[in-house]
Amino acid sequence: MTTQDTAQRPALRSQRLNQITHEPHTKLDALVKAHAPFETQANFARFVVAQYLFQSELVSLYNDVQLTAIVADLPARCRAEAAKADLADLETELPEQVAGAVNNPTKAEALGWLFVSEGSKLGAAFLIKRAVGLGLSETFGARHLAEPAGGRAEGWKSFVKTLDSLAFSAQEEAELDKGAIDAFNRFTVLLEQAYSTAAEPA
Questions:
Q1: Residue closest to 186 by CA, chosen among 34, 55, 60
Q2: Taking the chain, what is the end-to-end CA distance rounded to the nearest angstrom?
Q3: What CA–CA distance (Å, rounded) separates 80 from 38?
Q4: How many CB atoms lie within 10 A of CB 97?
Q5: Which residue of 49, 115, 182, 183 has the lowest C-beta tally within 10 Å?
């Protein structure tokens, strides 16, 4: 299998990122399911805490001048404010920031983080349907899962097309990979943190 994988090295950068993040992505999916965010609104609120923490750490990347020069609509793609509004809807206090946030990454590394953040919007199409079962919607409690303007698929295709077209050095490719893997690992940490504080009074 390993030999076959080596022989079938993905032609596109985005395909490679999907391949190298498969393991942390699978682990994160299993962890989300283990915390059963769609069983109760209280469980879902902890999930939103993790989403808010993650998105708020990426605000500076979504508004970075260098990155906006690459992806023009980047600032509008950020979901930190939507997650913040969801927490208010769910009567959940804003969490304190957790040490270890991404700090001054290289351009390529930052794009790795954004690749993971933007990619999660595709999965949100399924999550929003589950959230509806809790009495939530794209305008109440689950805003951060709402379909982006122009559609999920189009927004993702546009981002990936831009990412795949960039000219990167070998060093930048490595930084991009690191950013994507770090992003999955960071969300995993934030998710654990969000649910570990669930027993504490608000």
A1: 55
A2: 49
A3: 21
A4: 11
A5: 182
Q: Is the predicted pLDDT of residue 8 greater than 80, yes or no?
A: no
Using one digit for the tens of pLDDT, what is the confidence trace for 132-158?
999 999 999 999 999 998 899 999 999
SS3 at position 140: strand
Residue 12 lies in a domain: no
- Reference 57, options 39, 78, 38; nearest CA is 78
- Residue 80 sits in a domain of what CATH number? 1.20.910.10
Amino acid at 59: V
Domain ranges, residue 155: 38-196
Query: Does 114 map to a domain?
Result: yes
Residue 157 is assigned to a structural domain of this protein: yes
Q: For the chain, what is the domain count?
A: 1
Task: List, in order, residues 6 or more apart from 113 with CB less than 8 Å away.
Answer: 58, 61, 102, 105, 179, 180, 182, 183
